[in-house]
Amino acid sequence: MAAAFALLITCQLIGELLRAAFGLPLPGPVIGMLLLMALLVWRGAATEGPLDRVAGGLIGNMGLLFVPAGVGIIAQLALLRRDWLPILAGLVVSTVVGLVVTGLVMHRVSRAVETHRSGAVPVAAE
Amino acid sequence: MMPQILQALWMPLLPSPLLWLAATLLAYRLGEFIRQRCGGAAWANPVLIAIAVLVALLLATGTPYETYFSGAQFIHFLLGPATVALAVPLARNLAVVRRSLHGTGLALLAGSVTAAASGFAVVWLLGGSRSAAFSMAPRSVTTPIAMAVSQQVGGVPALTAALVIAGGILAAIIGRSLLRVLKIEDWRAHGLAAGVAGGGIAAAQVAPLNGLAAAFAALGIGLNGVLTALFVPLLALLWPA
To answer: Is the pTM of this model over 0.95?
Structure first.
């Protein structure tokens, strides 16, 4: 438990250090995530153990961790009142576009690759 | 009489971080309870409920956000290690999706970039402010990454967090039917689209339906975070502060 938490915090610390040292555009915790992922892929990711439990606990309760920052919206009521229309439109458009583009490209490309491999038109996946 | 008793109890608690720490935990627990009562419906989101309850409490008691945050920061701090922890499911799912790497890579790239760029462009074209546009740009990413990116490019992390959740709820409600209208029945596409466009909230809606969808949703969340964190700072070059 302590070792797993130390690993997470150390990855974040190294991430922050790398970001500061090289002026990277990625946030420190994201660099830390990439470092840990590289480590896990290299070492082989264990499916159970302390790291899995600590990570599972943090991820399973992640919603709680956003709340303090989310309450900060209270200081942005003026911005919301002024820009509510662009914000609402941007939200709907980016969500629909994200869903459609990702779904369509995934569908088309995997079907093309599978057709190419098998040399026949595959039966639609159910 | 009653208000005086309340005030006498209230005053000594104010300088302590415990009051708002407890309030945050209880508000979130209330949100979870409401979601259970609503049969796990996507719109009954515990984070949104907790934020609404706490904002109402702060407004009603005239408490400044700084006072609230001095207590709640202990919870906020865990967001960093939780982001790093996303590497664990990501590493595991990387093996699962290795077989459909072409489609996944292309779809991720196309979905991430268009989601970020379209949200940003709509706010910009409709005359929204720079901070609104940059709060919107990273909104399809999982909340901790989205907030970190928002902060970095001059958005408002709190607004970004609210947008991530609202967009996730929208994607969870419309995602499945929208893709079916387009005649997409592939579980991999459904999972990946939910992860890329709707983050954890939409993924939670799709994941229990199919194991393959769950793996692709987890991958969509993680890699979309990385791609968007790289792409949004480029948008910042288009509209310097």
So the answer is: no
